[in-house]
Amino acid sequence: MTLITASELMTMFAQGTSCPSILLLLLSSLTFLIHSKPCNAAIDRHSIVSRYNPSRNASSMTTPMQIGNGFFAFGADVTGLQTFQPFAIMSSWGWKNDSLPSGKTMEDVENYHGVSWLNHGRPVEYDFGSNDPELEQWLTANPNRVNLGRIGFLFRDGEGQVLDVTESDLTEIKQYLDLWTGKMSSSFVLDGQVVKVNVTCAQESDTVAVSVQSALLAAGRIGFFLDFPWNDGSKKFSAPFVGSFNLTSNHTTALSTFSMDSGRGDIKAQIIHRLVNNAFLTSLGGDDFAITRDTPHTHRYTILSNSSGGSDSFAFTATFTPEQNPPSTIPSAADVEDSSLRAWQDYWTGSGFVDVFTGSTDARADELQRRIILSRYLMRVNEAGDSPPQESGLVNDGWYGKFHMEMFFWHSAHWALWSNWDILSRSAPSTYSRFLPSSIHRAQVQQGFASGARWPKMTDPTTPGRSSPGQINNLLIWEQPHPLMFAMYELRSVSGLGDDGGEKREEVLQKWSSIVRETANWMASFAWFNSSTGVYDLGPPMYVVSEDTSPNDTVNPSFELAYWKLGLGFAETWVEELGEEVPQVWKDVREGLAKLPLEQIDNETVYRVYEGLEDDFWTDPAYTNDHPALVGLHGWLPPTEDVDLEIAKTTAEKVWGSWNISNCWGWDFPMLAMSAARNNETSKAIEWLLHPLFQFDDVGMPIGGVRVPTPYFPGSGSLLYSIAMMAEGWDGSEGLAPGFPKGWNVQVEGMSKAI
Q: In the chain, how long is the greatest CA-to-CA distance?
């Protein structure tokens, strides 16, 4: 789908584009608008997006400028490459295992068993606390995500000797990212000569294209280097850079070159990079070049143009793959640039859009719009693959590069509200389908629950779904209802589609059916019937959202109780839609769950974090110092059975005044904003979204803050989810942009309401 603006239409006429082609684009635009939400006039999307094209004149020490396709990303310093700063080339598929601890075998890994804790008198085995901490740490750190390499400029003198050029030797530096096309451009002057470079990323393959123009090329004074780092799981966080380039004896590389008649298509050279038992392939093509290894003891290679006429331009492409999936050919730089342009234009024109800038009188609208546009770009670059993203996307590594299933919602639920089902369907429900067998085994075989699937917390796509050891990793539970939310959003997306709606609805119901059933089965099994109180309890042992309570003391936490009721209700609806009988145990648990715990403070009734929590909770920094999930009771979550909305509002206001906000981070602020919006405190909602501690840097990277390194992409995903909800509304909301106060002119196209 394509939207065409008036300015683009005039340009097409000026360029001589045929009338039938223009008519086809206009009809396509009209079709999209008919199926979008009504608005006063079509938003000039190109103008809004281009307004926030980022630029730099010096490299950042913490974040790159990025291009990518959701599965693969290339981070650059100010030269457009990785010349002075070793930012990463990362992927959703690039994983490796370190060598096992001395004396250990894969049989030991398969036979790993953690400690057993009593769960209401019954021993339950978890993946932590074993008598082999060394093996346990290996399981936590493996597999780990790999930096695939580094590409940079090589500067030489007139005699061909390599110069020690630093960024300070360059002048007139300009770097620019065209968000509309995904093209990154840099220019600078060295020794009085201008160097211009364009870098783009293919959308159908994990290929980077580099095109350079300079008189220094014709003089043989510019080349390029490729370097490959050692990667391992020795660090929980590898930021801002990933891997070590000086541990050359730990790994190997080997170069192969090919002639035109070798049957390798346009591939001119390949470098195989081996790390322990994993290997990755870099395939090179483009204009004629020579490639050599700098020394036998390093993994650095030099590329020099072979232009016989002393050309001042040169282009090459690099495709990255696992060793077992070598490419049969490699696209040209022009093909890569065209791929990028088409995909990004389709992305910007073919899905939802929110304009909070045009016509708004609030001076903060410009900054909020900047965050929206740059977050939309970076999420498409970093988080549009077939597995849940890690917290830092494809920029650097956190938690060894693994992802966290409780964060899957914040990373990816926004795609549903922005009508990006082509992207969300890559990872949901497929991730849950892949993880279903191991999750059923965890719940029923390892832990002895009666039925269902217990989803992992910290995991990876290669095992698949093996739980990383650790108390929090094994005792957190708020990730469990997430698939029910994803499923319900997809079911809503196919409602009202006319003649095709019934067929598509049945297709969605069936493809999520097993996931919905096994999720609800375990949620019902986990709830324990307390015969002394006559209700079903959640916990112990368990960790709440904030991860800061004692797991063996935590019982009936407010947020988890509400989410359990909501999720089980969704599961019941799902089975009813299939025309099947709802399991009685689901109903019994949903209707019989313990009431949300209350307390009286300052003559007001508020919800407690969990039942039995100390009376001085609100003044004890040990409990008011992390994710304030109490505000999610009516904000992130919709009105839910047994949640009193007045008490929820009073509780949220108590959080606003009592919580240690200085220790909040990432998605905390959009969650606070959603609570304010649903409670008709719209000015407060804007304040939370633009809070001084909720920051995005000059290229839109979400700052990690005091708790985690930058970037922390749950902040971006939750921002986009909250913006969609505040702009398009939620079930039961009234009027246009119900989450925005006066002074804001909000235009919306192609969005969906939040639950």
A: 90
Q: Are strands 72-76 and 237-238 parallel, antiparallel or unpaired?
A: unpaired
What pLDDT shows up at residue 310?
80
Is 189 buried (19+), middle (13-18) or exposed (0-12) by CB count in 10 A? middle
Neighbour-count burial for 564-585, b at 16+ CB within 10 Å, e otherwise: bbbbbbbbbebbeeeeeebbeb
Q: Where are the domains of the chain?
A: 69-94+143-341, 432-595
Classify burial at 544, counting beta carbons within 10 Å of its beta carbon; exposed 0-12, middle 13-18, buried 19 or more: buried
- pLDDT at residue number 707: 80
Three-state SS sequence of 9-44: HHHHHHCCCCHHHHHHHHHHHHHHHHCCCCCCCCCC
User: How far apart are alpha carbons 216 and 78 in whole angstroms?
Assistant: 18
Q: Are 212 and 304 in contact (CB under 8 A)?
A: no
**pLDDT over 80 at 706, yes or no:** no
Around Cβ 122, how many Cβ atoms within 10 Å?
A: 12
The pLDDT value recorded for residue 614 is 83
Pick the CATH number of 69-94+143-341 from 2.60.40.420, 3.30.450.50, 3.40.50.10490, 2.70.98.40: 2.70.98.40
Q: Which of 145-159, 260-274, 590-604, 706-720 has the lowest mean pLDDT?
A: 260-274
Provide the 10 A C-beta neighbour count for residue 361.
Answer: 9
Q: Do domains 69-94+143-341 and 432-595 have the same CATH topology?
A: no
The fraction of the chain above a pLDDT of 70, given in percent, is 93
Torsion angle, alpha carbons of 478, 383, 665, 53, to 10: -150
For residue 3, is pLDDT > 70? no
3-state secondary structure 384-408: CCCCCCCCCCCCCEEHHHCEEHHHH
Q: Please write the tens of the pLDDT for every residue from 297-338.
A: 999 999 999 976 689 999 999 999 999 999 999 999 999 999
CA separation for the pair 583, 576 (Å, rounded) = 10
Tokens coding 279: 């290997």
Which residues, in sequence order, are CB contacts of 643 under 8 Å at separation 6+?
Answer: 562, 596, 633, 634, 637
> What is the Cα–Cα distance from 118 to 122, expressed in whole angstroms?
5
Note the pLDDT of residue 18. 40
Q: Is 7 helix (H, G, I), strand (E, B) or coil?
A: helix
Sequence-ordered list of residues with C-beta below 8 angstroms from that of 402, at least 6 positions apart, any chain: 144, 145, 390, 458, 459, 460, 468
How does DSSP assign 350-384, residue by residue? SS-EEE-STT--STTHHHHHHHHHHHHHHHHHHS-
Tell me the pLDDT band of 626, cut-offs 50, 70 and 90: confident
- Whether the CA torsion 588, 590, 595, 597 is positive or negative: it is positive
Radius of gyration of the chain (CA): 27
At 705, the pLDDT band (50, 70, 90 cuts) reads: confident
Residue at 77: amino acid letter: D
Among 24, 25, 33, which Cα is nearest to 8's?
25
- The CA distance from 473 to 510, in Å, is 30
Cα distance between residue 444 and residue 365, in whole Å = 51
Two tokens, residue 448: 């002895």
Give 70-90 as a 3 state SS string: CCEEEEECCCCCCCCCCCCEE
Instruction: Provide CATH code, domain 432-595.
Output: 1.50.10.10
End-to-end CA distance of the chain: 26
Q: Residue 186's beta-bridge partner residues?
A: 175, 197
Match 């370097």 to its residue by tokens.
227
